[in-house]
């Protein structure tokens, strides 16, 4: 059973069929769900090998007639739309920068049967933080220069006899990272290659002694910004038919 099938069945449980018939000449709830799913797919942004960010704030603009009909569904429609967006994101491997928000809004410029979706893109909704992941524990890079080593005076201490007291340093400017060996005894490797210094790509692995340290770039919620102009998609159901 597809996600839209699940949506329709959930909606049927919430709304009686007689009421649903009033939507025959305008937007159907399933068409809103399909438009949201399409917006998720079009606006998803690849951050790294295992992270795809999708927009999490949506405004669905409807004609006055359609907005009146949809408002009559109350929380039933809102709950089903949230469920569908969350399930579709999970199925596609998308992540969100914050809670999902879906708002239905009246737009006097739209004709019956037309809907418009505005979404906040990943670029406009997140800030980036570099972290070092060691055995499942993440150490945020809170300074521009982070020293890794065996000594207690290192910023990130590792219990590895193959590490020098101050073995390597990671430089992070908020967008780019670099690793630099600090004249260590046994050297530093990046993705299996010995280096003196090298740029850090997301998900690359620094090896010090027997310790693997994965460099991650993670998303954090940022203050909301207005949607970018190209983050708007318009759908004319009367001309194009239901979205699939």
In short:
By secondary structure, the chain is of the alpha+beta class. Helix content is 25%, strand content 36%. The chain is rod-shaped and about 75 Å long.
Overall description:
With 244 residues, the protein is α+β, with helices and mostly antiparallel strands. The protein has 2 domains: 3-120, FhaA, phosphopeptide-binding domain (DUF3662) (hypothetical protein PF0899 fold); 127-220, Tumour Suppressor Smad4 (Sandwich). It is built from 6 helices and 18 strands. A 6-stranded antiparallel β-sheet has the order 8-7-17-16-13-14, with no helix packed on it. A 5-stranded mixed β-sheet has the order 10-9-11-12-15, with no helix packed on it. Strands 5-3-6-18 form a 4-stranded mixed β-sheet. Strand 16 and strand 17 form a beta hairpin. The protein starts with a helix and ends with a helix. InterPro entries: Cell_Proc_Reg/RNA_Proc (IPR050923), FHA_dom (IPR000253), FhaA_N (IPR022128), FhaA_N_sf (IPR042287), SMAD_FHA_dom_sf (IPR008984). Residues 233-244 have a biased composition (Basic and acidic residues). This is FHA domain-containing protein. Keywords: Phosphoprotein. Residues 222-244 are annotated as: Disordered.
